[in-house]
Design goal:
Largest interface: A-B, 38 and 77 residues
Helix content of chain A: 25-40%
Order of helices and strands of chain A: EEHH
Radius of gyration of chain A: 18 Å
Largest sheet of chain A: none
Number of helices of chain B: 13
Structural class of chain A: alpha+beta
Distance between the termini of chain B: 60 Å
Oligomer: heterodimer
CATH topology of the largest domain in chain B: Nucleotidyltransferase, domain 5
Shape of chain B: globular
CATH superfamily of the largest domain in chain B: ATPase, nucleotide binding domain
Shape of chain A: flat
Number of domains of chain B: 4
Strand content of chain A: 5-15%
Strand content of chain B: 35-45%
Structural class of chain B: alpha+beta
Distance between the termini of chain A: 38 Å
């Protein structure tokens, strides 16, 4: 996708919308990826923080 | 036996699948693979049956054989009675064994389980405890070490009371229940834990076709995490429905020859059931099955054969119910067969080749049907749930009890999921196409990275991050030879297949941009290079977006606040 003529924004980034509301669902507490997710959530870590540990 | 370390006994866990018809035990072997353990009789699918003669307890296949001569003191099909009151249970499966009866708030069986003549009343919880104790013993004997903990699989519709009753029964059998996991998720995990499997975003249907009931579930697998989107249950459909076809077939043959119906005699029916089930299982492997029963009715021996074609013809209606259950659960999830990436066949009745073949016809070419007859790398459908449980057991057995409880707490599992897909618009020539990067139903927070080809000439690249929805585009067949359809280029690949199915309408998934989220520009990209885009969605629906040329230094980043 090429840049169209005359498009400009501060720092080349422009927010134009927001996400639709999410649906609340239950994750299945199974598998290594869930356990990693649970660990992040319990310790309030982000992805990159988690990777560093 | 148990090694005492720091006062607390060491935990040694296995995976157990506990079914109405049969149960299995599994562990992770030293090579790190899940392995189903055979009991001392060599059975990997151990019938969930207990039987008593002269105070001696029989279990598994031995107990099942007692259904013919000692049916009153044989307990079978009891799992679904755990934690239920008498009024809410369906006692049909127990017609040919010890009958369930009310006992205070629970269900019990009246059986002679001691050397004395008087029957004792044994609650279903106690029966489950005895069954689990035998399973634990078999696993301990095989592993040469006392097993004291387990992850047990349960159906998705198990109530809290049933879960508590099962946990209590297991505890009484000397097993600490680390976690109860859902059967379809265990099956999905068994496949995804294979070393050759890669973590992808996919929608999976798990068809668990059991002995006396069948369950289907749609799972969204996103980044290796599972969410159940819909479930469907049929409490009358299963391998037993297929056994009945075989039983009726042979009974009719017997009547033709000898003018008596072996089904009217309890013992005759029990024999037919036992042998009929064997014949049905043989037909899943071979094209012919023979059956021979001594003294079936009126002292007459009976021997006959049936071939698979005949059996499949007779079972058409039942097969249609199995596939109907699968279609029903997809509909319940608000999805189309085109959305499904994988169909996992689990449970004993899934060995039937015809069922998987019929499912093959329902789904598109790209959908993987994971059953022995349609996929060479398929795992034995009977072993999926115990393997999944064993994998989970090995993951959490080192954890403290508190850790496990906190991790599976609703605070952690209740998670916002994306309603729509997030992706980018890709412009090629005149068409604008939406390419999803994060799929709908992705649990948040989530992060995805993708690379896109920059225009050949290089220059400035414009990225538009959008929300998209998928639609099913139906193209009606045209009377004259196909013309190139106006939209997407992907259609060209399909044109080869069109010629012989001109009659059918063509259904395909197309993506439509729902609403734009953010626009970014990466300037001065070299010719032929790629642009990497990373999208991070927070649990509060805020986004961080980063884009840069692959190998480049300057990144464009920005954040979008939640609504």
């Amino acid at each position: 996708p090429a840049l169209s003529e005359g498009w400009s924004a501060e720092k080349d980034f422009k927010a134009v919308g927001t996400l639709s509301a999410a649906t609340q669902r239950n994750l299945e507490a199974v598998g290594p990826h869930f356990l990693a997710h649970a660990r992040r959530k319990r310790h309030h870590r982000t992805f990159s923080e988690d990777e560093r540990i | 036996m148990s090694d005492e370390t720091n006062g607390a006994p060491e935990r040694f866990a296995i995976g157990i699948s506990f079914g109405n018809t049969s149960s299995s035990i599994a562990r992770i072997n030293p090579e790190g693979k899940a392995e189903v353990i055979a009991n001392e009789e060599g059975d990997r699918q151990i019938p969930s049956v207990l039987s008593y003669i002269d105070g001696e307890e029989y279990h598994g296949t031995q107990a099942k054989a007692q259904l013919v001569r000692n049916s009153q003191n044989t307990v079978a099909y009891f799992r679904d009675y755990l934690g239920k009151d008498f009024k809410s249970i369906d006692a049909t499966p127990c017609h040919n064994s010890a009958h369930p009866q009310p006992q205070e708030s629970t269900v019990a069986f009246s059986i002679v389980d001691t050397a004395s003549e008087t029957p004792s009343t044994v609650t279903v919880s106690e029966i489950a405890t005895r069954h689990l104790r035998r399973l634990k013993q078999s696993a301990s004997d095989y592993l040469g070490k006392e097993v004291n903990a387990a992850v047990i699989t349960v159906p998705t519709d198990f109530t809290e009371a049933q879960r508590e009753a099962l946990t209590a029964s297991a505890k009484a059998a000397g097993l600490e229940v680390l976690q109860l996991i859902h059967e379809p998720v265990a099956a999905a995990l068994a496949y995804d834990a294979r070393p050759e499997a890669t973590v992808t975003d996919k929608l999976v249907v798990v068809a668990d076709l059991g002995g006396t009931r069948s369950d289907a579930a749609v799972l969204a697998c996103r980044g290796g995490m599972y969410s159940i989107l819909a479930t469907a249950h049929d409490y009358e459909l299963g391998g037993a429905s297929l056994d009945k076809i075989i039983i009726d077939h042979f009974a009719k043959e017997f009547i033709k020859k000898h003018k008596t119906d072996p089904r009217e005699n309890a013992r005759g029916l029990a024999k037919l059931k036992l042998e009929g089930e064997g014949a049905r299982k043989t037909l899943s492997l071979g094209t012919n099955a023979s059956l021979s029963i001594e003294s079936l009715a009126d002292g007459i021996d009976f021997g006959s054969t049936v071939n698979r074609t005949r059996y499949e013809l007779l079972s058409n209606k039942i097969f249609a119910q199995f596939t109907g259950l699968i279609e029903q659960v997809i509909q319940k999830a608000g999805l189309d067969v085109l959305d499904i990436d994988e169909v996992i066949f689990a449970g004993g009745a899934s060995h039937t080749p015809k069922i998987a073949q019929l499912a093959r016809n329902i789904f598109s070419e790209k959908t993987q049907i994971l059953a022995p007859s349609t996929f060479t790398g398929a795992i034995n459908p009977s072993e999926l749930a115990p393997r999944g449980a064993a994998i989970q057991a090995s993951l959490i057995q080192e954890f403290d009890k508190e850790d496990i409880e906190q991790s599976i707490h609703p605070m952690v599992t209740a998670t916002p999921h994306l309603k729509n897909a997030i992706g980018v618009e890709v412009t090629s020539a005149e068409t604008v196409e939406f390419q999803p990067l994060l799929n709908a139903e992705t649990a948040l927070p989530a992060r995805r990275v993708a690379q896109y080809n920059a225009p050949k000439a290089g220059g400035d690249v414009f990225i538009r991050v959008c929300e998209g929805v998928r639609e099913i585009k139906v193209t009606k067949p045209e009377p004259k030879p196909k013309e190139e359809k106006p939209k997407t280029e992907g259609d060209e690949d399909d044109s080869d297949f069109d010629s012989d199915e001109e009659e059918e309408e063509i259904r395909e998934i197309v993506w439509k941009t729902e609403k734009p989220i953010a626009e970014l520009a990466v300037k001065g990209v070299k010719a032929g290079s790629k642009v990497e885009l990373m999208i991070h969605v927070n649990a509060d629906l805020g986004l961080q977006i980063t884009a840069r040329e692959v190998g480049g230094q300057n990144a464009v980043r920005g954040a979008v606040q939640a609504a």
